[in-house]
Amino acid sequence: MKHLSLATLSDVKAEKPAYDPTTLALGVVHFGPGAFHRAHQAAYLDALAVTDPRWGICGVSLHSTGVRDALTPQNGLYTLATLDEEIGYRIIASIREVLVGPENPEAVFERLMGCGIVTSTVTEKGYCLHADGALDFGHGDIVHDLANPQAPKSFIGYVVEGLRRRREAGLAPFVLIPCDNLPNNGRRLKGAVVAFAARFDAGFADWIETGLACPCTMVDSITPATDDALRTRVADAIGVQDAWPIQREAFTQWVIEDHIHDGGPDWTSVGVTLTDNVPAYERAKLRLLNGPHSTLAYAGLHKGYETVSEAMNDPELSGLVRDLMLKDVVPLLETPKGMDLPGYCEAILKRFRNPAIRHLLSQIAWDGSQKLPIRILSSLQEALARGNDISRLAVPLAAWMRFVRKKAATGEAMTDPLAGELIALGKGLSDSRTDVAVFLALRAVFPENLAGNAVFVNAVEAAYERLLAAEDVVA
Ligand code: CS2
């Protein structure tokens, strides 16, 4: 079978780009061209390319060579399979180049000089922030980048050195658009960039503070990792082989704060929502989609399920997340303009049930130490302050603790920046209520005010005991 590339595009049985990909300028530099980026922002920019050729993408991988190695022989083309009641296959051509940062930082800086927009999907941990949202100057990559600004390891290091060179050359800053599931992602990122720059030169930090547009965003589309089943399915459908197709649900949403630059893309023409109230959208999404997702992940794995839709078929679990959303979280939220929060919850529950998608709970369970504070503790703190019942919100925390325990006992790999610490801690547990205190001592996850709150501690201990009892029944 032939392989996907510009040369074989005419043989492909899929929706094809309605523009000539070779004419796109590299107007966007994107850090972290993983599955989510290729499912989401790259698809929007692919639609935009039909009318505006300025926004082709240069993807920059900070660690692995995999995306570059898969996409370069395919001239950047890949298949986006949308899995719902109907299955769609579309060839995306907006990624025109993929660079691997550590191989050639100068090539990345060159692109940063020539682009108009920088976007990122580097995950929560890629921002190198403390739990309070400020840049972590003790983070190994940040320490490295302050000493070696010309060969950075972190996304922050690249952005700051790219801005420094632009200032030196008399250019304006690029527009920086973070696309990760972080509250106030634009504010946090800009704060981190300014703080890093201030270590070099206060005037430079002021220049960034005044001139850098870094809007907050909300991004949404459920994107399970690529597997061999998808590769086979895509090859059968489109008639050529694609080394790295991407799958997602049909639903997709991108909300960007509307103070972005003149002369930029016509975002709304491709379905992006521009608003002055991103925080309301982003809080709703983080707490009503990502929070329940993490709840299903840990509670579902605890019950032996593999995928989100399987977990949703368990009435106890689907009832838990539904109540958590509607009874615990919705009352805490401001309703974004034109949105109906209970309707939003029902739509999310339907998306979780999507039978066309095999979204692995183990994928969502990655990086729990980073995700739980944002997704669950945020709601829980507010619920506590109002004197609301927090027993359901305690369940994902207790289930995560059992998840860590299991990883420590089985020796299975755990993806989490705190993995070493968590595994060590998980080995010393006694499988009793007292385990909870061991976890609550993790200051990177549980702030002092919460860990010392008796109502909170009791709720997590009670949830933990219930999970232990369920394990006894299974055993
Ligand atoms: C998920 C998200 O893996 C996870 O943690 O909760 O990737 C989720 O699928 C997306 O945010 C949906 O937009």
TrEMBL record:
Molecular function per GO: fructuronate reductase activity
Keywords (A to Z) from UniProt: Oxidoreductase
Alphabetical list of Pfam families matching this protein: Mannitol_dh, Mannitol_dh_C
Assigned EC number: 1.1.1.57
Domain Mannitol dehydrogenase N-terminal: 27-268
Domain Mannitol dehydrogenase C-terminal: 277-467
SUPFAM superfamilies for the chain: 6-phosphogluconate dehydrogenase C-terminal domain-like, NAD(P)-binding Rossmann-fold domains
InterPro entries for this protein: 6-PGluconate_DH-like_C_sf (IPR008927), 6PGD_dom2 (IPR013328), Mannitol_DH (IPR000669), Mannitol_DH/Oxidoreductase (IPR050988), Mannitol_DH_C (IPR013118), Mannitol_DH_N (IPR013131), NAD(P)-bd_dom_sf (IPR036291)
Top-level taxonomic group: Bacteria
Name this protein carries in UniProt: D-mannonate oxidoreductase
The organism of origin for this protein: Asticcacaulis biprosthecium C19
